[in-house]
Amino acid sequence: MEKSITYFDKPGKENTDTVIEVVRNRVRALDIREVVVASTTGKTGVAIAEALQEEDVNLVVVTHQYGAHDEGQWDMDSKYVSRLNELGVEIVSQSHMFSGIEKSLSRETGGISRIEIVADTLRKLFGKGFKVAVEIAIMAADSGALTMEGEVIAVGGTSYGADVACVIKPAHSNNFYDLQIREILCMPREK
Question: CA 20 to 30 Å from 71, out of 27, 96, 134, 185?
Fold first, then answer.
């Protein structure tokens, strides 16, 4: 089997439109029924939701938990939340699978946890957006937002926008080693 991978020179939001086109083409080619996208404010989630409106896919937007940046506050912008609701998109708000309480403990007591090693390994070898794509597939699975019946496309980014897309066989966090990255659709060359 031979497939192409789209590589970007650098990570960043300027790659979002190309990622959307790559995802749409792969959804059609593989008959993918579920797409998971990371979106802090909802802007990237809306862009992908609007682009995939004509496709028969369950789109799940995964975002930070409340208080990720400001105590008690949610990073999602109400105008994007409204649009995602109009489009029937499920929003999952959850603590990061590769940090959460572990990161807090490491900060307070020193050292690094095993889960942070997994996150750092993915981030250093493949880039932040790649780590995010893997992480949100697990978060969506653990939230019950995925059927777990087949492959999904997971879309991640570095800071804002999207710059990574992968075909993933998702798994729940308690079965992490069952997760499989089946295809890399696009990613930045520079980390």
Answer: 134
Decide if pLDDT at 156 tops 90: yes
CATH code assigned at 11: 3.40.1380.20
DSSP string, the chain: -----EEESS-SGGGHHHHHHHHHHHHHHHT--EEEEE-SSSHHHHHHHHHTTTS--EEEEEEPPTTSSSTT---S-HHHHHHHHHTT-EEEE---TTSHHHHHHHHHH-S--HHHHHHHHHHHHH-HHHHHHHHHHHHHHHTT-S--SS-EEEEE-SSSS--EEEEEE---GGGGGG-EEEEEEEEES--
How many Cβ atoms sit within 10 Å of the Cβ of residue 12? Answer: 18
Range of the domain at 53: 6-188
pLDDT above 90: residue 46: yes
Q: How far apart are CA 107 and CA 171, in angstroms?
A: 28
Give a yes or no: residue 35 inside a domain. yes
Q: Is 98 within 8 Å of 131 (Cβ atoms)? A: yes
HSE at residue 143, side-chain half, CA atoms within 13 A, is 21
The pTM for the full model equals 0.94
**Whether residue 17 has pLDDT greater than 90:** yes
- Pair of tokens at residue 184: 């890399």
